[in-house]
Amino acid sequence: MSTLSKENLISSRQTAEVYKVDGKAVKVFNEKHPASEVLNEALNTARVEETGVNIPKILEVTKIDNKWAFSTEFIEGKTLAQLMEENPDDWQKYIDQMVDLQIEINKKKCPLLNRLKEKMTRQIQELSELNDATRYELLTRLESMPKHTKLCHGDFNPSNIIIGDNGTVYILDWVHATQGNASADVARTYLLLMLQSEEKAEYYLDSFCKKTDTAKPYVQRWLPIVAAAQLTKKRPEEKELLMKWVDVAEYQ
Questions:
Q1: Count of beta carbons in the 10 Å neighbourhood of residue 215
Q2: For the segment 103-119, what is each residue's pLDDT rounded down to a tens digit?
Q3: Chain-centroid distance, C-alpha 70
Q4: pLDDT digits (tens, 9 = 90+) for 154-168
Q5: Who wins on pLDDT, 244 or 47?
Q6: Are 113 and 179 a contacting pair, CB within 8 Å?
Q7: Could you please report the per-residue DSSP string of 49-88?
Q8: CA distance 154 to 24
Q9: Does residue 69 surpass a pLDDT of 60?
Q10: DSSP state letter for 23
C-alpha cells in the first residue's frame, strides 16, 4: 500500500482519518481506538453488503503503523451534502431522494446485526448527563415501543450518501447499523438535520411520513430516546440541542 500522506487525506474525524490510496478508501483509526469496535464496523459493513444495499465493497482489514485500518472501494462522485450546497434551489429534490433511499434500506433484513432497542438501552443506562428519573422514563418509553427488525443505518444523513460520477448511489458509514424500528432511524436523521436546518428537517420528516403513511407523532415519540442515545457520542456541538429534545413530557 502506498504511504499515507496529507495529500491523499479525504476526511478527518475524532476517531479516524480516511485516505484515498491506490483506488481505495482507507479508514485508519486512532491507536487508542478499540480493536473490537474496528472489527465490529468492518463486520457490520460486510453484513450490510450481503443484503444487497449498494455500498462500497469492503476489501481488507489490516494494521498500518500499529493502527487498525480497513479499506473499501473508492467511489468517484459527490455526496448529497455537496450537491445540496452547490444547488441550493434543489434541496427539496435531494431530501426526497434521501427519503426514498432510506425507505429502501429499511425494507432490508440483516438478522445478525445488533438489535437497536438493546443498544439504546445500554447507551441510556450509561449516560451520566441524565438524572435517574429521566433515565427511568426514557427506558420505560423505549421498552414500550414496537419491536421491529428492519435494517437501520444509525447515522443516515446527506454526508453519508454518494452519487457516483455514473449516477449510481452508494451509502457509506455503517458503524452504527442495527436491526430495529425504522421510525427510530428516521428520528435520528431528523435530529441530525435539525443541527443544520430546521426547515430541511421538517420537510424531511413530512416527506417520510407521507411516503410511508406513518403518523408523524409516532416518529416524534422516538425523539427523546434517540436524542439521549445520540448524547453518548460526546459531540460538544450537538449537546445543547440534544438536551432540549430529551424531554419525556413532550410528544406523549
A1: 10
A2: 999 999 999 999 999 99
A3: 19
A4: 999 999 999 999 999
A5: 47
A6: yes
A7: HHHT---PPEEEEEEETTEEEEEEEPPPEEEHHHHHHH-G
A8: 24
A9: yes
A10: T
Q: How many CA atoms lie within 13 A of 62 on its CB side?
A: 10
Measured in residues, the chain has a length of: 252
Pairing of strands 24-29, 58-64: unpaired
Q: Contact 161/172 with Cβ under 8 angstroms? A: yes
pLDDT band at 243 (very low <50, low <70, confident <90, very high): confident
Q: Which residues contact 166 (CB under 8 A, 6 or more apart)?
A: none
Q: pTM of the full predicted structure?
A: 0.92
Determine the Cα–Cα distance for residues 133 and 138; give it in Å rounded to an integer. 9
CB contact at 8 A, 248 and 225? no
18 in helix, strand or coil? strand
User: What own/partner pairs with CB < 8 Å and gap ≥ 24 does 211-219 have?
Assistant: 211/99, 211/100, 211/103, 212/103, 212/182, 214/183, 214/186, 217/251, 218/183, 219/183, 219/186, 219/187, 219/190
Give residue 183's identity as a one-letter amino acid code.
Answer: S
Distance between CA atoms of residues 162 and 172, nearest Å? 8
**Nearest residue to 138 via CA among 231, 222, 214, 232:** 222
| Plot region of 9 (φ>0 → left; ψ -120 to 50 → alpha; else → beta) | beta
